[in-house]
Amino acid sequence: MTQETIKVEGMSCGHCVMRVKKAIEGVQGVQKVDVSLENKQAVVEFDEGKTDVEKIKAAIKESGYEPV
Ligand SMILES: [Cu+2]
User: Fold this and answer.
1) How crowded is the C-beta side of 24, counted as CA atoms within 13 Å?
2) Are 33 and 42 in contact (CB under 8 A)?
3) What distance in Å separates the CA atoms of residue 17 and residue 13, rounded to the nearest whole number?
4) How far is the CA of 65 from the centre of ligand 1 (A)?
5) How far is the CA of 44 from the centre of ligand 1 (A)?
6) What pLDDT is attached to residue 36?
7) I want to staple 67 with a disulfide (CB 3.0 to 4.6 A). Which of 16, 21, 60, 63 is the partner?
8) What is the structure's pLDDT at 66?
9) Per-residue pLDDT tens digits of the chain, which is 68 residues long
10) What is the pLDDT at residue 9?
11) Cα of 54 from ligand 1 centre, angstroms
């Protein structure tokens, strides 16, 4: 299992946090997601054999937010 911290721009409330969390959870291979509005970041645990950071970032982007 790999853990990565991804900075996310554009979140302004709990609703945004839920949208980003749901988007990341929808990526196959993701095990655990913790999104922080205060820190503007997502801490993601995932199976390296099934997904990668680029795919997770793409899912964040699709949900309307900006991974950095
Ligand atoms: Cu919001």
Assistant:
1) 32
2) yes
3) 7
4) 10
5) 20
6) 98
7) 60
8) 98
9) 999 999 999 999 999 999 999 999 999 999 999 999 999 999 999 999 999 999 999 999 999 999 99
10) 98
11) 23
Q: Residue 19: count other Cβ atoms within 10 Å of its Cβ.
A: 16
CATH number of the domain residue 31 falls in: 3.30.70.100
Q: How many domains does the chain fold into?
A: 1
How many residues are present in the chain? Answer: 68
Q: Ligand 1 center to residue 49 CA distance, Å? A: 32
CA of 5 to the centre of ligand 1 (A): 20
Q: What is the C-alpha separation between 53 and 19, in angstroms, rounded? A: 18
Pairing of the two strands 2-9 and 30-36: unpaired
